[in-house]
Amino acid sequence: MLKAGIVGLPNVGKSTLFNALTRSRKAEAANYPFCTIDPNVGVVTVPDDRLEVLRKIAKAHAAIPAAIEFVDVAGLVAGASRGEGLGNQFLGTIREVDAIVHVVRCFRDPDVIHTVGSIEPVRDIEIVATELILSDLEAVLKRIDKAQKKAKSGDKEAQVELALLERLAPHLNASKPANVLSVNEDEARLLRLFQLLSAKPVIYACNVAEGDLATAAQNPFVQGVAGFVRAHHDAAYVPISARIESELVDLAPDEAKAFLRDLGVDDSGVSSLIRATYELLGLLTFFTANEKEARAWTIRKGWKAPQAAGIIHTDFEKGFIKAEVVAFADLARLGSVAAAREAGKYRLEGKEYALQDGDVALFRFNT
To answer: Which residues of 83-116 are buried (b: 16+ CB within 10 A; e: fewer)?
Structure first.
């Protein structure tokens, strides 16, 4: 299962958000720096209204959603790349995740300590980004030394690696993250092997006060984050209210909806954040459905039908013959597999077919 790491400065709402995402009280959320030391890990289901529609069409007894894993990472401070605070632990945990959810404080509250002393979201983003970039720069410079020695001996792979590294070093030195470096497809594959922290895809969670969620687009802190990340980090942002979601954890679904309606919103932003993180990880959902269960399965974009079948069972991939496929939109509109067949929307696909988001599939295979 792919992981997304929740990062940010201390006291910005990371642990509160983690508890909201996982619908738990697993992470300690306290008004002092470094209340999270060991990272908390939780599995989070991906909200998807299509699944319940499919369950009803298939008359299935259960619906099983897709899921991703979130990791609540210890708070970072300036100097983390040199080991300040919990820097080494922070950076080590980030190396193990596939994407980053960067929580940024976009609310004022005199009762909640800010470790830098004032509420300036763009500055906070730059502190975290700088530490990731500095750690990467150190790693790149070490790689350059090794690659130079191999390249001088005529090693072609080392020469290609060196060329990329020598572009990366000044890029990082200019305080630019690795994920905005312009690379071709081959360089992108090589860049992934470097496992750089600032090369990981990132989304920014703008944590606003309860009363600001309905008008988050007008929040000057959120506006500042939006402009900055679009210009400098090629990233998306989602306004959320971790405090609201923490209050919803113990409420029944109907009570939670009523609570949000009273605040003038349909969602605290957490569902949008989960879906956006899923997209950030380069994932898509396909479905299977029978009388037992309707189920959402997670695969990477571009995966071919046999690879997707292998997620269900390795035998499905080994003995793959064909995939029977219908798009969810067509199935939902027509109301049944039989109607989809009659309308010509139900089709057979072979080994080279790349599954699309929302495909409902049945795999034929030999054992």
So the answer is: eebbbebbbebbeebbbbbbbbbbbeeeeeebbe
Strands 320-327 and 359-365: antiparallel
Q: Are strands 293-300 and 62-64 parallel, antiparallel or unpaired?
A: parallel
346 contacts: CB under 8 Å, gap ≥ 6: 324, 325, 326, 337, 340
Tokens encoding 125? 């983003």
Which ranges in the chain belong to alpha helices (H)? Answer: 14-22, 50-58, 87-95, 121-152, 156-173, 185-194, 220-232, 242-248, 253-262, 270-280, 305-312, 314-318, 328-334, 337-342
Contact 78, 131 (CB under 8 A): yes
The CA distance from 125 to 121, in Å, is 6
Determine if the pTM surpasses 0.90. no
Distance CA 317, CA 309 (A): 5
Give the orientation angle of helix 156-173 with respect to helix 185-194, to 10 degrees: 80
Task: Beginning with the edge strand found earlier in the chain, give each strand of the sheet holding 359-365 in spatial order.
Answer: 62-64, 293-300, 283-289, 359-365, 320-327, 347-349
324 bridge partner residues: 348, 362
Q: For the chain, give percent helix, strand, coil, nearest 5.
A: 45, 20, 35
Residue closest to 124 by CA, chosen among 205, 20, 241:
205
Residue with tokens 């989960």: 274
Distance, CA of 327 to chain centre: 25
Bridge partners for 202 per DSSP: 100
Q: pLDDT, tens digit, for every residue of 231-278?
A: 877 688 999 988 888 788 788 878 888 888 888 888 768 888 888 888
Of 193 and 113, the structure prediction assigns the larger pLDDT to 193
